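Section 3.1: Structural characterization of target chains.
Under the original work plan, the team committed to producing a structural model for every single-chain target entering the pipeline before any wet-lab resources were allocated. The record below documents one such target. The sequence was received from the expression subgroup and is listed exactly as submitted; it comprises 296 residues.
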Amino acid sequence: MKKTTSNLFILPYFLWIFLFVLAPVVMIIFQSFFNVEGQFSLENYKEFFTSQNLTYLKMSFNSVLYAGIVTLVTLLISYPTAYFLTLLKHRQLWLMLIVLPTWVNLLLKAYAFIGIFGQNGSINSFLSFLGVAPQQILFTDFSFIFVASYIELPFMILPIFNVLDDLDPNLINASYDLGANRWDTFRHVVFPLSMNGVRSGVQSVFIPSLSLFMLTRMIGGNRVITLGTAIEQHFLTTQNWGMGSTIGVVLILAMLLPCGQQEKGENDEKSISFLSRLRLSNPLSSYLLFDLLCLQ
């Protein structure tokens, strides 16, 4: 009876996965084999890889490039932020303040930044007050990367914070006791043990950043052309659903790039190996030896 009840609880989950994950992917793959006349063909894939001036391949490169830049920017900001949050007394309050902007609709945030970066926006008004001529900030690569990084920032901070917050302080103390400085402790102990959070954050940011077509249009002014923009144009403008589905298939494959993961145990082994090397190169008292053995 208990097993039957558990299976009933699992059923909605599998239905959701089938209807809203597997079925759409299958439909996109199926539609990608039909040309604009509705005939079964490999023409879409041929056009994608051999189009004039390699248009679609350049779009693919731009998508991965911009997604990579956004991911790198958010990582460089998020890791120190998450580490600093773990040292605060009211960390949950500050974490909630970081999460709050995610409750605001993406479209509203885009319009807000249009008002900030526009010719008559807040930044140019401040520059005019300083006697500097208005600058073209909106519809640039900088504005797109800045806004995309701002939007994705909480999704990088959260997983890194969770891992750092759960990190065993005894490992850090053991590293200090064995003679390691702060930089060596961070490089060989803290960072390897936080890689699971970093990978989760990278996946959470990189994958959505591949298809931010709304921001490329409203903030980038279509100067930033990505696969997401091309999919939107083929489905809504040219009505070439086959080509749009083909680009979607390529985009799905690109999203699988950051999904190669290293097992957590390997990172643990690296940190313990570093502590072991320190143990061999430093004379230890008996209580330090016992402490290290307990950590292992």
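Residues 261-266, 278-296 have pLDDT under 50 and may be disordered.
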